[in-house]
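Dear all,

This email documents one entry for the complex benchmark we are building for the journal club exercise. For each entry we list the sequence lines for every component of the assembly. Then comes the predicted three-dimensional structure of the complex as a C-alpha coordinate string, followed by one or two observations. Please use this as the template for your own entries, and keep the labels exactly as they appear.
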Amino acid sequence: MKFRQFTLFLALAFILSACAGTQPGPTSAPPKPAPAPAAKAEKPAPAKPATAKKPARKTGYDTVISNGEELLIFGQTEYITILPGHVRLPARVDTGATTSSIHAVNIKKFERDGKKWVRFNLVAADGRKVKMERPWIRTIEVKRHGTKQQVRPVVNLEALIGPLRIRTQFSLTDRSQFKFPVLIGRSLLEGKAVVDVNRKYVLSPLSGDKDEK
Amino acid sequence: MLKNRNQAHVRKALTILAALAILLLGAGPGSAREKLTVGATEVIHVADADLDFVARIDTGARTTSINAQNIKIENPAADKKDNVGKTITLEVINAKGEKRRIKSKVVKVLEVRNAQGTELRYMIPLTLRWHGIDKLIRVNLRDRSAMTYKLLIGRDWLKGDFIVDVEKNPGGRKK
Protein backbone atom coordinates (compact mmCIF):
# COMPACT_ATOMS: atom_id res chain seq x y z
CA MET A 1 0.00 0.00 0.00
CA LYS A 2 2.62 2.40 1.12
CA PHE A 3 4.79 1.47 -1.82
CA ARG A 4 2.01 2.10 -4.31
CA GLN A 5 1.41 5.56 -2.96
CA PHE A 6 5.05 6.35 -3.11
CA THR A 7 5.30 5.24 -6.73
CA LEU A 8 2.26 7.31 -7.59
CA PHE A 9 3.83 10.31 -5.97
CA LEU A 10 7.05 9.79 -7.89
CA ALA A 11 5.19 9.43 -11.18
CA LEU A 12 3.11 12.54 -10.51
CA ALA A 13 6.14 14.57 -9.55
CA PHE A 14 7.96 13.41 -12.65
CA ILE A 15 5.11 14.29 -15.01
CA LEU A 16 4.58 17.66 -13.41
CA SER A 17 8.21 18.59 -13.46
CA ALA A 18 8.39 17.54 -17.10
CA CYS A 19 5.45 19.84 -17.88
CA ALA A 20 7.01 22.70 -16.01
CA GLY A 21 10.26 22.12 -17.83
CA THR A 22 8.71 22.80 -21.21
CA GLN A 23 7.83 26.34 -20.22
CA PRO A 24 10.98 28.36 -20.11
CA GLY A 25 10.56 30.90 -17.39
CA PRO A 26 12.77 32.80 -15.02
CA THR A 27 12.15 30.10 -12.46
CA SER A 28 12.78 27.05 -14.61
CA ALA A 29 16.02 25.14 -14.49
CA PRO A 30 18.85 26.06 -16.87
CA PRO A 31 18.09 24.58 -20.30
CA LYS A 32 19.58 21.18 -20.90
CA PRO A 33 21.22 20.58 -24.24
CA ALA A 34 17.98 19.61 -25.96
CA PRO A 35 17.97 17.41 -29.04
CA ALA A 36 18.07 19.53 -32.19
CA PRO A 37 14.54 20.28 -33.37
CA ALA A 38 14.72 18.70 -36.80
CA ALA A 39 11.17 19.65 -37.75
CA LYS A 40 11.93 23.33 -37.30
CA ALA A 41 14.12 23.47 -40.38
CA GLU A 42 11.13 22.66 -42.58
CA LYS A 43 9.14 25.68 -41.45
CA PRO A 44 8.91 28.27 -44.21
CA ALA A 45 9.68 31.40 -42.29
CA PRO A 46 12.46 31.51 -39.72
CA ALA A 47 10.63 33.50 -37.07
CA LYS A 48 13.07 33.30 -34.21
CA PRO A 49 11.61 33.20 -30.74
CA ALA A 50 12.99 35.72 -28.31
CA THR A 51 15.49 34.12 -26.03
CA ALA A 52 13.83 33.12 -22.81
CA LYS A 53 13.75 35.71 -20.12
CA LYS A 54 16.17 35.45 -17.32
CA PRO A 55 16.50 37.75 -14.37
CA ALA A 56 19.28 40.22 -14.88
CA ARG A 57 21.92 39.56 -12.30
CA LYS A 58 22.56 43.11 -11.24
CA THR A 59 19.02 44.40 -11.14
CA GLY A 60 16.63 41.54 -10.62
CA TYR A 61 14.46 42.88 -13.46
CA ASP A 62 13.28 40.66 -16.29
CA THR A 63 15.32 40.90 -19.45
CA VAL A 64 15.53 39.27 -22.86
CA ILE A 65 18.45 38.72 -25.16
CA SER A 66 17.69 40.35 -28.49
CA ASN A 67 20.39 40.42 -31.15
CA GLY A 68 22.97 39.45 -28.55
CA GLU A 69 22.08 42.36 -26.30
CA GLU A 70 20.48 42.07 -22.89
CA LEU A 71 17.44 44.34 -22.87
CA LEU A 72 14.98 45.15 -20.10
CA ILE A 73 11.31 44.33 -20.57
CA PHE A 74 8.97 47.32 -20.36
CA GLY A 75 5.23 46.90 -20.11
CA GLN A 76 2.81 48.98 -22.19
CA THR A 77 2.86 51.48 -19.32
CA GLU A 78 5.65 52.38 -16.91
CA TYR A 79 6.35 54.99 -14.28
CA ILE A 80 9.05 57.51 -15.06
CA THR A 81 10.67 59.90 -12.61
CA ILE A 82 12.06 63.18 -13.92
CA LEU A 83 15.06 63.88 -11.79
CA PRO A 84 15.35 67.41 -10.60
CA GLY A 85 12.23 67.62 -8.46
CA HIS A 86 11.55 63.89 -8.59
CA VAL A 87 8.37 64.24 -10.61
CA ARG A 88 6.99 60.71 -10.92
CA LEU A 89 4.54 60.25 -13.78
CA PRO A 90 2.79 57.39 -15.53
CA ALA A 91 3.96 56.90 -19.09
CA ARG A 92 2.62 55.09 -22.09
CA VAL A 93 5.30 53.16 -23.97
CA ASP A 94 4.68 54.15 -27.58
CA THR A 95 6.77 52.53 -30.32
CA GLY A 96 4.78 54.65 -32.78
CA ALA A 97 6.54 57.79 -31.50
CA THR A 98 10.10 58.65 -32.51
CA THR A 99 10.80 61.00 -29.63
CA SER A 100 9.42 60.87 -26.11
CA SER A 101 7.16 63.66 -25.00
CA ILE A 102 6.04 65.09 -21.68
CA HIS A 103 3.20 67.28 -20.48
CA ALA A 104 4.48 70.81 -19.83
CA VAL A 105 2.80 74.14 -19.21
CA ASN A 106 3.89 77.78 -19.34
CA ILE A 107 6.40 76.97 -22.05
CA LYS A 108 8.46 80.11 -22.82
CA LYS A 109 11.48 80.64 -24.98
CA PHE A 110 14.31 82.78 -23.63
CA GLU A 111 17.95 83.51 -24.30
CA ARG A 112 20.93 82.70 -22.14
CA ASP A 113 24.49 83.51 -23.22
CA GLY A 114 23.23 84.04 -26.73
CA LYS A 115 21.66 80.61 -26.84
CA LYS A 116 18.06 79.50 -27.14
CA TRP A 117 16.64 78.13 -23.89
CA VAL A 118 13.17 77.17 -22.74
CA ARG A 119 11.47 77.72 -19.40
CA PHE A 120 8.55 75.47 -18.49
CA ASN A 121 6.64 73.75 -15.70
CA LEU A 122 6.21 70.05 -15.28
CA VAL A 123 3.05 69.06 -13.45
CA ALA A 124 3.39 66.35 -10.80
CA ALA A 125 0.63 63.84 -10.13
CA ASP A 126 -0.60 65.93 -7.18
CA GLY A 127 -0.75 69.07 -9.32
CA ARG A 128 2.46 70.55 -7.95
CA LYS A 129 4.26 72.58 -10.60
CA VAL A 130 7.98 72.15 -11.00
CA LYS A 131 9.95 74.93 -12.69
CA MET A 132 12.55 73.89 -15.24
CA GLU A 133 14.98 75.65 -17.55
CA ARG A 134 16.73 73.76 -20.32
CA PRO A 135 18.60 74.50 -23.53
CA TRP A 136 16.28 74.33 -26.52
CA ILE A 137 17.93 71.52 -28.52
CA ARG A 138 15.69 71.38 -31.53
CA THR A 139 12.14 71.87 -32.65
CA ILE A 140 9.61 69.27 -33.67
CA GLU A 141 6.94 70.28 -36.11
CA VAL A 142 3.79 68.29 -35.63
CA LYS A 143 1.38 68.05 -38.48
CA ARG A 144 -2.00 66.59 -37.76
CA HIS A 145 -5.15 66.28 -39.77
CA GLY A 146 -7.34 69.30 -39.35
CA THR A 147 -5.15 71.25 -36.96
CA LYS A 148 -2.68 73.99 -37.53
CA GLN A 149 0.97 73.08 -37.41
CA GLN A 150 2.38 72.89 -33.94
CA VAL A 151 5.93 73.72 -32.94
CA ARG A 152 7.31 71.91 -29.94
CA PRO A 153 10.64 72.49 -28.22
CA VAL A 154 12.81 69.46 -27.52
CA VAL A 155 14.96 69.37 -24.39
CA ASN A 156 17.18 66.87 -22.63
CA LEU A 157 15.84 65.58 -19.32
CA GLU A 158 17.31 63.19 -16.82
CA ALA A 159 14.96 60.42 -15.78
CA LEU A 160 14.67 57.18 -13.85
CA ILE A 161 12.78 54.18 -15.18
CA GLY A 162 13.13 51.03 -13.11
CA PRO A 163 16.86 50.41 -12.83
CA LEU A 164 17.73 52.88 -15.60
CA ARG A 165 19.01 56.37 -15.12
CA ILE A 166 18.95 58.06 -18.47
CA ARG A 167 19.32 61.40 -20.14
CA THR A 168 17.09 61.60 -23.13
CA GLN A 169 15.19 63.97 -25.37
CA PHE A 170 11.61 64.96 -24.65
CA SER A 171 9.37 67.20 -26.66
CA LEU A 172 7.37 69.59 -24.48
CA THR A 173 3.67 69.80 -25.13
CA ASP A 174 0.32 70.29 -23.46
CA ARG A 175 -0.91 66.76 -22.92
CA SER A 176 -3.66 67.71 -20.49
CA GLN A 177 -6.27 66.12 -22.77
CA PHE A 178 -4.45 62.81 -22.75
CA LYS A 179 -4.56 60.05 -20.21
CA PHE A 180 -0.79 59.74 -19.95
CA PRO A 181 1.34 62.83 -19.27
CA VAL A 182 4.38 61.06 -20.75
CA LEU A 183 4.97 59.09 -23.92
CA ILE A 184 8.08 56.93 -24.04
CA GLY A 185 9.21 56.88 -27.66
CA ARG A 186 11.58 54.76 -29.69
CA SER A 187 14.69 56.87 -29.09
CA LEU A 188 14.45 56.12 -25.37
CA LEU A 189 13.84 52.40 -25.89
CA GLU A 190 16.61 51.78 -28.41
CA GLY A 191 19.24 49.45 -27.03
CA LYS A 192 17.67 49.52 -23.57
CA ALA A 193 14.33 47.78 -23.56
CA VAL A 194 11.81 45.73 -25.47
CA VAL A 195 8.06 46.18 -25.00
CA ASP A 196 5.65 43.49 -23.88
CA VAL A 197 2.14 44.93 -24.20
CA ASN A 198 0.70 42.12 -22.10
CA ARG A 199 2.22 43.74 -19.06
CA LYS A 200 1.79 47.04 -17.25
CA TYR A 201 4.06 48.86 -14.83
CA VAL A 202 6.42 45.90 -14.60
CA LEU A 203 9.31 48.00 -13.32
CA SER A 204 7.32 49.23 -10.34
CA PRO A 205 4.92 46.41 -9.48
CA LEU A 206 3.73 48.02 -6.27
CA SER A 207 2.18 50.94 -8.07
CA GLY A 208 0.32 49.09 -10.82
CA ASP A 209 -3.16 50.24 -11.67
CA LYS A 210 -6.00 48.81 -13.65
CA ASP A 211 -7.00 50.91 -16.59
CA GLU A 212 -8.18 49.91 -20.05
CA LYS A 213 -7.99 46.29 -21.08
CA MET B 1 -1.45 1.59 12.53
CA LEU B 2 -2.60 5.04 13.49
CA LYS B 3 0.89 6.33 13.03
CA ASN B 4 0.99 4.83 9.57
CA ARG B 5 -2.24 6.50 8.59
CA ASN B 6 -0.98 9.85 9.74
CA GLN B 7 2.11 9.41 7.70
CA ALA B 8 0.01 8.62 4.67
CA HIS B 9 -1.99 11.81 5.21
CA VAL B 10 1.12 13.84 5.56
CA ARG B 11 2.53 12.33 2.41
CA LYS B 12 -0.67 13.04 0.51
CA ALA B 13 -0.65 16.65 1.65
CA LEU B 14 2.99 16.96 0.67
CA THR B 15 2.27 15.50 -2.75
CA ILE B 16 -0.49 18.03 -3.36
CA LEU B 17 1.71 20.85 -2.15
CA ALA B 18 4.57 19.74 -4.37
CA ALA B 19 2.26 19.47 -7.37
CA LEU B 20 0.84 22.94 -6.72
CA ALA B 21 4.28 24.44 -6.29
CA ILE B 22 5.52 22.94 -9.54
CA LEU B 23 2.43 24.09 -11.40
CA LEU B 24 2.68 27.60 -10.02
CA LEU B 25 6.37 27.90 -10.76
CA GLY B 26 5.95 26.56 -14.26
CA ALA B 27 2.89 28.50 -15.35
CA GLY B 28 2.90 31.58 -13.14
CA PRO B 29 2.61 35.08 -14.55
CA GLY B 30 6.37 35.45 -14.55
CA SER B 31 6.89 32.62 -16.98
CA ALA B 32 7.79 33.61 -20.49
CA ARG B 33 5.66 31.76 -22.94
CA GLU B 34 8.02 32.04 -25.84
CA LYS B 35 7.20 35.30 -27.54
CA LEU B 36 8.56 36.31 -30.89
CA THR B 37 10.30 39.62 -31.37
CA VAL B 38 9.07 42.08 -33.95
CA GLY B 39 10.81 45.30 -34.91
CA ALA B 40 9.61 48.90 -35.17
CA THR B 41 8.36 48.11 -38.69
CA GLU B 42 7.44 44.79 -40.26
CA VAL B 43 6.10 43.52 -43.56
CA ILE B 44 2.63 42.15 -42.82
CA HIS B 45 0.58 40.17 -45.30
CA VAL B 46 -3.12 41.00 -45.26
CA ALA B 47 -4.48 37.59 -46.18
CA ASP B 48 -8.01 38.73 -47.03
CA ALA B 49 -6.60 41.11 -49.64
CA ASP B 50 -3.56 39.00 -50.59
CA LEU B 51 -1.46 42.14 -50.21
CA ASP B 52 1.75 43.01 -48.37
CA PHE B 53 1.97 46.12 -46.22
CA VAL B 54 4.97 47.72 -44.57
CA ALA B 55 3.54 48.29 -41.13
CA ARG B 56 4.53 50.47 -38.21
CA ILE B 57 4.41 48.52 -34.96
CA ASP B 58 2.74 50.92 -32.53
CA THR B 59 2.40 49.96 -28.87
CA GLY B 60 0.71 53.33 -28.36
CA ALA B 61 -2.30 52.23 -30.42
CA ARG B 62 -4.92 49.95 -28.92
CA THR B 63 -6.31 48.74 -32.24
CA THR B 64 -4.79 48.05 -35.62
CA SER B 65 -5.64 50.44 -38.45
CA ILE B 66 -5.43 50.05 -42.23
CA ASN B 67 -5.56 52.48 -45.14
CA ALA B 68 -9.01 52.12 -46.71
CA GLN B 69 -10.83 54.06 -49.38
CA ASN B 70 -14.11 53.98 -51.29
CA ILE B 71 -15.89 52.54 -48.30
CA LYS B 72 -19.46 51.55 -49.11
CA ILE B 73 -22.09 50.10 -46.83
CA GLU B 74 -25.04 48.11 -48.11
CA ASN B 75 -28.29 49.89 -47.13
CA PRO B 76 -26.51 52.40 -44.92
CA ALA B 77 -28.25 53.81 -41.87
CA ALA B 78 -28.19 57.53 -41.09
CA ASP B 79 -26.20 56.89 -37.95
CA LYS B 80 -22.87 55.16 -38.59
CA LYS B 81 -23.29 53.24 -35.37
CA ASP B 82 -26.35 51.47 -36.77
CA ASN B 83 -24.31 49.87 -39.54
CA VAL B 84 -22.90 47.10 -37.38
CA GLY B 85 -23.54 43.73 -39.02
CA LYS B 86 -23.99 45.18 -42.49
CA THR B 87 -22.02 44.25 -45.58
CA ILE B 88 -19.19 46.62 -46.36
CA THR B 89 -17.00 46.94 -49.45
CA LEU B 90 -13.79 48.91 -49.53
CA GLU B 91 -10.37 49.19 -51.10
CA VAL B 92 -7.20 48.64 -49.12
CA ILE B 93 -4.15 50.36 -50.61
CA ASN B 94 -0.52 49.81 -49.66
CA ALA B 95 2.39 52.25 -49.98
CA LYS B 96 3.21 51.03 -53.49
CA GLY B 97 -0.29 52.01 -54.55
CA GLU B 98 -1.42 48.41 -55.00
CA LYS B 99 -5.08 48.11 -54.15
CA ARG B 100 -7.54 45.31 -53.56
CA ARG B 101 -11.27 45.40 -53.18
CA ILE B 102 -12.58 43.61 -50.08
CA LYS B 103 -16.09 42.61 -49.16
CA SER B 104 -16.67 42.10 -45.47
CA LYS B 105 -18.98 42.79 -42.53
CA VAL B 106 -18.92 45.68 -40.10
CA VAL B 107 -18.19 44.04 -36.76
CA LYS B 108 -17.94 47.21 -34.73
CA VAL B 109 -18.01 50.97 -35.00
CA LEU B 110 -15.04 52.33 -33.11
CA GLU B 111 -15.08 55.69 -31.42
CA VAL B 112 -11.61 57.16 -31.72
CA ARG B 113 -10.82 60.13 -29.53
CA ASN B 114 -7.84 62.25 -30.40
CA ALA B 115 -6.76 65.84 -30.07
CA GLN B 116 -9.17 66.92 -32.81
CA GLY B 117 -12.26 65.36 -31.30
CA THR B 118 -14.21 62.18 -31.86
CA GLU B 119 -14.18 60.12 -35.00
CA LEU B 120 -16.18 56.99 -35.86
CA ARG B 121 -14.41 54.20 -37.72
CA TYR B 122 -15.71 50.92 -39.06
CA MET B 123 -14.01 47.73 -38.01
CA ILE B 124 -13.77 44.56 -40.07
CA PRO B 125 -12.10 41.23 -39.29
CA LEU B 126 -8.81 40.74 -41.12
CA THR B 127 -6.18 38.01 -40.99
CA LEU B 128 -2.73 39.56 -40.66
CA ARG B 129 0.17 37.24 -41.36
CA TRP B 130 3.76 37.66 -40.23
CA HIS B 131 6.41 35.00 -40.92
CA GLY B 132 3.73 32.42 -41.51
CA ILE B 133 1.85 33.28 -38.31
CA ASP B 134 -1.79 34.25 -38.82
CA LYS B 135 -3.71 36.43 -36.42
CA LEU B 136 -7.34 37.27 -37.03
CA ILE B 137 -8.24 40.59 -35.46
CA ARG B 138 -10.66 43.46 -35.88
CA VAL B 139 -9.01 46.25 -37.86
CA ASN B 140 -10.29 49.80 -38.08
CA LEU B 141 -10.61 51.48 -41.46
CA ARG B 142 -9.15 54.90 -42.03
CA ASP B 143 -7.87 57.03 -44.88
CA ARG B 144 -4.14 56.81 -44.21
CA SER B 145 -3.12 57.98 -47.67
CA ALA B 146 -1.26 60.98 -46.23
CA MET B 147 0.66 58.83 -43.77
CA THR B 148 3.92 56.97 -44.27
CA TYR B 149 2.63 53.65 -42.98
CA LYS B 150 -0.57 52.36 -44.52
CA LEU B 151 -0.92 49.74 -41.83
CA LEU B 152 -0.54 50.47 -38.14
CA ILE B 153 -0.19 47.42 -35.92
CA GLY B 154 -1.66 48.06 -32.47
CA ARG B 155 -1.56 46.25 -29.17
CA ASP B 156 -4.44 43.97 -30.15
CA TRP B 157 -2.29 42.17 -32.71
CA LEU B 158 0.78 42.07 -30.46
CA LYS B 159 -0.94 40.76 -27.34
CA GLY B 160 -0.05 37.27 -26.24
CA ASP B 161 2.45 36.54 -28.98
CA PHE B 162 4.94 39.31 -29.65
CA ILE B 163 7.36 41.65 -27.97
CA VAL B 164 8.73 44.73 -29.70
CA ASP B 165 12.42 45.59 -30.10
CA VAL B 166 12.61 48.97 -31.82
CA GLU B 167 16.24 48.41 -32.79
CA LYS B 168 14.98 45.88 -35.32
CA ASN B 169 13.81 47.36 -38.65
CA PRO B 170 13.76 50.94 -37.38
CA GLY B 171 12.29 52.14 -40.65
CA GLY B 172 12.86 55.52 -42.25
CA ARG B 173 13.62 58.79 -40.51
CA LYS B 174 15.60 57.82 -37.47
CA LYS B 175 15.45 60.57 -34.86
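Observations: Residues 18-45, 207-213 of chain A have pLDDT under 50 and may be disordered. Helices of chain A lie at 2-21, 186-189.
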